[in-house]
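Tokens for chain A. Residues wanted.
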């Protein structure tokens, strides 16, 4: 699970070289990430920004192979993470 309070399409303080290095690493390890990461959960209090990010979430999921979940609070993020982890454990036990 990746949990963040900044959307992946937002600008961060990282310089261009750090962004490039991170992007290359993620692309190189895409298969492993798809098997290990259940979702990226982004905490965004603004309902307007969550709604505006939905189209990006569709493209994100197609590219990375795991969903982008947009939530309004840390509590909601924790609940979704717990549910997804429990579901993964149940399916692994079956």
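Reply:
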């Amino acid at each position: 699970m990746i949990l963040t309070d900044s959307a992946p399409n937002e600008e961060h303080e990282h310089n261009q070289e750090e962004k490039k290095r991170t992007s290359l690493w993620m692309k190189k390890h895409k298969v492993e990430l798809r098997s290990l990461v259940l979702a990226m959960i982004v905490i965004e209090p603004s309902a307007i920004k969550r709604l505006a990010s939905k189209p990006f979430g569709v493209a994100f999921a197609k590219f990375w192979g795991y969903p982008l979940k947009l939530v309004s609070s840390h509590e909601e993020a924790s609940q979704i993470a717990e549910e997804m982890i429990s579901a993964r454990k149940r399916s692994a036990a079956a």
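The two ends are 21 Å apart (CA to CA). The chain has a mean pLDDT of 89.
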